[in-house]
Amino acid sequence: MFFAYRNRTLFCEDVSVAEIARRIGTPLYLYSQSALERQFREFDGAFAAVPHLTCYAAKANSNLAILSLLRRLGAGLDVVSGGELRRAAAAGMDPGKIVFSGVGKTVDEIDLGLQSGILQFNVESAAELEILQARARALRKVPDVALRVNPDVASGTHPYIATGGREHKFGIPIGQALELYRSARRSPLLRLTGIGCHIGSQITSVEPFLLALRRLKEVFRCLRAEGLDLRRLDLGGGLGIVYDKEQPPHPGEYAGAIIEVLRDLDCFLMLEPGRVIIGNAGILVTRVVVTKQSNGKNFVVVDAGMSDLLRPSLYGAYHRIEPVVRGRRTAWLADVVGPICETGDYLARDRKLPVVKAGELLAIGGAGAYGFSLASNYNSRMRAAEILVQGANYKLIRKRERFSDLIRGEARRPFPLPRKSR
């Protein structure tokens, strides 16, 4: 709907993708504002029957224009670093709607969160709780705190993005949570307001969420029975999207199942979606540099690589790839590869695609989440431009990096070489 062909040419809303590529160059990230708005409203609206806050996961895509748009839509924010917290401030986000998660918060990051007056710290260990308490004392603050509990749930997603199992680094083992709450409640420097979890990303079944929720619910009830006034339950994020043939639950189905489990628990629900909001609202546009055949294999070499879109190289992720301009063509099996000096630099392997030639444009779907946010400057490549489209208008929301950006902050001169002895 928001990315569709007209007269065989791909459009983003009412703007020709080919025209944007001609003016801006490639590779580039292209986002549909209307798609993002619809996906946020669809997700957030599905929980309208219960008190809740949808805190968008900034790690999925943290461009300031994206964060600002979500702020205007009423979103809160889930951050996992001081940098993301500073981005939130730059985008005008209300600190009272920010949750600070993350397994390795530094003292400086904790101080920043305390001084900013954020809604809640999601604490991931007893050691972090001690640091937070010490910094709260030093800064004379009393933060709202939830313990991120690891519910030991298999999420069925790729191992690299599963976070809720006992072998993972995230959260506090569920068997230790009650004792840590009991210990922490004695501190006058911490206000224990909730419990949370996050079991992974790109989860395509509602059952792992419900299993985690039921386990959190038991801990929540037990603590309330002991007189602890918990109010918030943070279920995290992780709802998947369609990249290929996945069949994730619709947000309405997901919300309905969660609300049913929470029906007899008086709490404020917090959610941290990322991919489901922005994933299919964006594409990566790349240009074919050359095609080549080698030992019976076909290669389409493009100007975007693993430095632009890491997911295929990192864990074999599938992204739909289509020509920006369609035509009657024969098909072939080909690897779509980038210019990076790594064999693992590919966007697709053994993919059935229309035969393309140098100079043509390809659109890589599902690139709105964990696309630019995972980009790097490997091989001294400049990071891509980002464009936001609304109707017939488009806006450059991140300039393409220049070489001067790449070397900013680097020393040009090393130590002098030692004199050679005669």
In short:
With 422 residues, the chain is of the alpha/beta class. It has 12 helices and 21 strands.
What does this structure look like?
With 422 residues, this protein is an alpha/beta fold. It folds into two domains: 3-30 and 279-405, Lyase, Ornithine Decarboxylase, Chain A, domain 1 (Beta Barrel), CATH 2.40.37; 102-271, Alpha-Beta Barrel (TIM Barrel). Helix content is 28%, strand content 26%. It has twelve helices and 21 strands. Strands 4, 14, 15, 16, 17, 18, 19, 20 and 21 form a nine-stranded mixed beta sheet that branches. The longest helix is centred in the middle third of the chain and has 19 residues, at 207-225. The protein is globular and about 70 Å long. The protein starts with a strand and ends in a 15-residue tail after the last helix.
* Rounded Rg: 24 Å
Task: Enter the CATH topology name of the largest domain.
Answer: TIM Barrel
Please tell me the CATH architecture of the largest domain by its name: Alpha-Beta Barrel
User: What proportion strand?
Assistant: 25-35%
Provide the structure class.
Answer: alpha/beta
Quaternary status of these chains?
single chain
Outline, from the CA principal axes? globular
- Estimate percent helicity: 25-40%
Instruction: Give the integer mean of the pLDDT values.
Output: 93
Low-pLDDT segments, ≥5 res: none
Main beta sheet: strand number and arrangement?
Answer: 9 strands, mixed
